[in-house]
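Below sits the subject:
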Amino acid sequence: MDDREFENDKPALGVGMVGYAFMGAAHSQGWRTVGRVFDLPMDPVMAAVCGRDRTAVSAAAHRLGWAAAETDWRALIARDDVQLVDICTPGDSHAEIAIAALEAGKHVLCEKPLANTVAEAEAMATAARAARLRGQLAMVGFNYRRTPAMALARSMVAEGRLGALRHVRVTYLQDWIVDPEFPLVWRLRREHAGSGALGDLGAHIIDLAQYLAGEVLVGVSALTETFVRERPLPAGESSGLSAASGASGRGPVTVDDAALFTGRLASGALASFEVTRVAAGRKNSLRLELNGEHGSLAFDLERLNELSFHDHTEPAGSAGFRRILVTEPEHPYLEAWWPPGHGLGYEHTFVHQARDLVHAIAAGTDPAPSFADGLQVQRVLAAVEESAGRDAVYTPVPPLTPALS
């Protein structure tokens, strides 16, 4: 057999990633796997990963499958073998890196939330709109959209299976900072993270609610709370922060631990949201339910290959919630994976995310969620914080202008 039959004639898509911690590892899994599972129009090449510590980033490159390592994200953007910049850093650096990459002619994938402030998100959406005219695409990494059950739920809502939507309920509960001696990591500092559970978890469920409903939130009423207001500094970190707290080796927590808010969708449907990182025993518990005039859908991330559906148009004597096992080849993304009944996991959402972005780049079509979608979520987050600061006063979410949408 002629070896040339195995030659890959697909155009390469060089990927450069900034950041290599939890999200960097998850995105790396997606880039390593996507071309081995899906028939793609382009060949993703893991060109380089970037981090500030030369030794650590070199080790990460070897462990995660990147061909090279950089210690300056500007150098990564400047590489000729990088056409797509994947941003997996804390939120305080998203805007600077993303805008620079777009202006350098690169496509961009940026982790959620899009930014730490509405102003930063607006600047990013503006840059993405300008870059789109030059052929560069930008997408936000809301990976839970890529769970097959979520994609199926969206198609069922769009097909009218629920009829007019009445209610959306979403909770996202974790417990990783229940211990008051858990250190003051970057996610607990406003200057790095923007907000706490609200931005970290709330961004996900705001996006999911709007994605599944097919409409945006127009107003919210909210409460937030920080239960542990001071924590020990991480090992090896300077105690410079301790002066503000008055306790040696400790510093103030400047973000929320939990948020609870209600909202109204554009159609008038009602929504409720709860996010926390101090729910003892809950590791990554995301649950949602949509109720419409003709039926209901429910999802639990801990059973991510399942969707619960109630068809209210059926006779009451035999109607009820039924389990849909989302593993059939006709279900979203499943045509490339395993036989029916063989479930997928969390990491597969990042494979699907990479798949969708590669197809969009190859076709020159707008990827979703866009930076404008990320800005919409950012405006909801800001409205939640404003409402919480005013004792839960109902706060409108400003609509996107045509220049940013």
The two ends are 52 Å apart (CA to CA). The first helix runs from residue 22 to 37.
